[in-house]
Each structure stands twice: as structure tokens, then as C-alpha cells.
Amino acid sequence: MHAHDSRPPSIVRRRLTRLRRHLCGRGVASLVAFALSAPVWAAAASPEQASTLPPLPQVAQDVASPSAQVRRKALRGLRERGGPETLPLLAGLLGDAEVDIREGALAGVIHVFVPPRPHHSIDSAAKAFEAALFHGQPWSVPPELSAALVKALADEEPSVRRDAAYAAGIVLTPPVTNGVAFEILASLSDGVPSVRVAAARALGRLQVRDAGVPLIGRVNDEDLDVRLASMNALGDLREQRAIVALTDQFAFYVRGAAGRAAISALAAIGHPVKIPLFETETKSGYPAHRRAAYEGLARSGGAAAAALRIEAAVDSEHDRRVRLAMAFATASAGRDGVNRVLDALTDRDRSDEALAYLVELGQPHVAAIAARLGDPDPFVRGQIATALGFIGGPAAIAALKSASAESDPDVRQRIDIAQLRLSRATAVRAAGTP
């Protein structure tokens, strides 16, 4: 263990022991630029540029070079090339002796799975993690990359540990192995708050069920960002054991960030026992509370009894995000709110929120969702394709197939990604593997 390591010694010893037992072979980015001609978060090369890059066998030799300068050159070439074929070689650089190379390799991995999007800046691992929820690429993960990412979670540098947690949340899909879950859970006890934040978010994204109790403990973490991330993760997990702790947080911090996070997490869990709280908070003076309240009614089953009242109140609600949550609630109750959710796709500021609601509403609304593949706005058509790719089912597959004549190249790409996602999910189910 390095003298400057800020993690508790017991955590380090347990993690290293576990790594030796479960992993073999060699093993995102901080915002500090490293000694390459391109910055850490530079975009991949165009196809024309990629054709002039050295062949991968040559790059593989450079990755194994004893010269750090040569390895940096190899990393630059892999970053410029991009594409899933670079992942095994990037994995080999995640355990490099030089921290800037490890950071750059993590950034390279993340860019393969979360390429830049028009009008969206992705300049950190945290932002990539946010974008990856619906806009990540469903590439297969080479075994050596999974192993290298898990080893990077125990790196001596906090920036690498932090971004390895984000990368794991981006690259891996639930359910993860016990070894992966163990390592991310260990990161939840890291001495550096930003690492704990990343770990909490990854645990929620990867649906690590054993994380419930440790995350409840972090609801009282000394760092506010860790508390907020832990509450959000408990919502992602729909962890019912957290209801009491979250209710206490909301009661104590009702007007602050922790209060907002607490009621949002309660809304995500959506337990019927909180319906009275959700009903009360629909009248709150805080838009974030009203929004969470309507989401909570949708998920708890309370929206059915309140649907007529919600519909009557929509026009008097001034906050557009609250109106969107109200539409989600009425749609969940079998009313016509889905069309209001679909209409919100045109608003770039809240389009991904509407997309998330559509995915959650799921297959009962596929016909209405698929009908918008004919929308005149290509941005909306792209969002619809993405929604169908996550919803799945025969009707979604058929709708995407019927859109094969799409003329817009960006929409066409999103249709292809949605079909790839569905075909991979079908293959995984057929094989009976996670």
C-alpha cells in the first residue's frame, strides 16, 4: 500500500486479497491534461483519419513497450481510432505504471461507449455516466476490460478510482458478478468523497442488491454530495428498507438539497405507504417536491384514484417539469397522459426526462410511442427509436423494422443501435446468461 493512500488499511487489504483471488492479467479520466497532443476528452478520429492510423497489431506492440513515451503514442492512436475493437488494448493500459496513461485509457474506454452527441458537452466521466443511461453504446465487454476496470477501482490514485467506478457503471450491465459488486461496494468506503459519490451512483445503475444497507448508512455521510448520491441510488434500487431513513431526511431537510433528494428517492421507490405524503406534496410550494409527488403517485399506484384531479390541475401548473410528471402519472393510470409525455420530446431541455418516463411506461404504450416514428422532427424520431430499443417486445421490434427506410443518418444510427440492443437482449435471454 502506498504511503499517501487515503483509504482505510483494512479496505485496501481486503480489496487486494479479493483481487488476487478473482482476477488475473493486467489490468475516467480526470480533467487534468496528460502529456499527449490531444486532451483527455478529445473526440475520436473521423473514418478518413482512422484510415491513416497504424494497424492494431502495431499498436498492440506499442502498448506493451517498456517506454512510457511509446505507450502514450499508442494510447493516442487508440483514442483517435475509437471503436469497440480498441477495448482490449485500452484494457491493457488501465494498469499502466503512469497515472496519466491510466486516466487516458479510462477516458478512451468511456468514449467508445459514450460518443459525443450534438449539442451535449461530455467533458468528464460524471457527465458521460449521465449520458450513458439512454445514449450509451451496447457493445460487448471483453473479459480483460471487465477485469481491468475492477482492478482500477483499487488504484492508488483517487482520480482513477473515481472514474473507474463511473466507467464500471457505464460499461457493465446488471446483474454484475459478486466480485464486481464487492469492489464497488468497497469504493463506497473510500476516503475520498468523490470516489464514494461515483461508487454510490454505479451501485444504483448496476442494481447491486447487496448495496441497500451500506447505502442507507451513507445517507448520513459527512459529505453532502455522498448523501445525495446515496439517496438517489436507493431510489434507483427501489430499496424499501430505506423508506424510514429517507422519510426522516425529508422531514429534517425539507427545504434543502437533501430534502429534495429524499422525496425524489421515495418517489422512485413508490411504496403505497407513502401515498399520503405524495398527496400532500402535490400542493407544495416547491416545484421539485410537486414533481416527485406526482412521480410517487404514479409508481405507488396512487395515481388511479387521483387521475381526474391531476388532469384538472395540469393547466394551472406553471412548472413544465411538474406538468410532465403529471402527464406521466395520468398515463400510468391508463389515461391519455402519454401524448403529453411524447409532446415533451421536442423540448431539448427535458427530452431525456420524457424519454425516461416513456421507457418506464413501457409496452402498454408502445403503439402510441411507435406512432411518433413518423414525426417531422428527426430529433423526436431518434428519441422514439431509443425508447423502443429499451422497451422491447414484439411490437417495438416490428416498429423499428418498419422504420428501416429512415432517411436521416442520425436517426438511422439510433434505429440501428436500438435494434442491436434488442438483438443482444434476445441473445442473452436465449443463452440464459447475465
Characterization of the model:
- The longest helix has 23 residues, at 409-431.
- This protein has helices spanning 9-22, 47-50, 56-63, 68-81, 87-93, 99-113, 125-135, 143-152, 158-171, 178-187, 193-205, 212-218, 224-237, 243-252, 257-269, 275-281, 287-300, 303-313, 320-332, 337-343, 351-361, 366-371, 378-391, 394-402, 409-431.
- Helix 9 packs parallel to helix 11 (193-205).
- It has a domain at 378-434.
- It has 25 helices and no strands.
- The model is unreliable at 1-14 and 16-39 (pLDDT under 50).
- Helices cover 64% and strands 0% of the residues.
- The protein starts with 8 loop residues before the first helix and ends with a helix.
- It is globular.
- It is mostly helical and 434 residues long.
Whole-number mean pLDDT: 89
Q: Gap between N and C termini, in Å?
A: 34 Å
What integer value in Å does the Rg equal? 23 Å
Q: What can be said about the biggest beta sheet?
A: none
Shape: globular
What helical percentage do the residues reach? 55-70%
Q: What is the string of SSEs from the N terminus onward?
A: HHHHHHHHHHHHHHHHHHHHHHHHH
Give the strand content.
under 5%
E-strand count: 0
Counting H and I runs of at least 4 residues, what is the number of helices?
A: 25
Helix/strand/pairing class, anyone? mainly alpha
Question: Regions with pLDDT < 50 over 5+ consecutive residues?
Answer: 1-14, 16-39
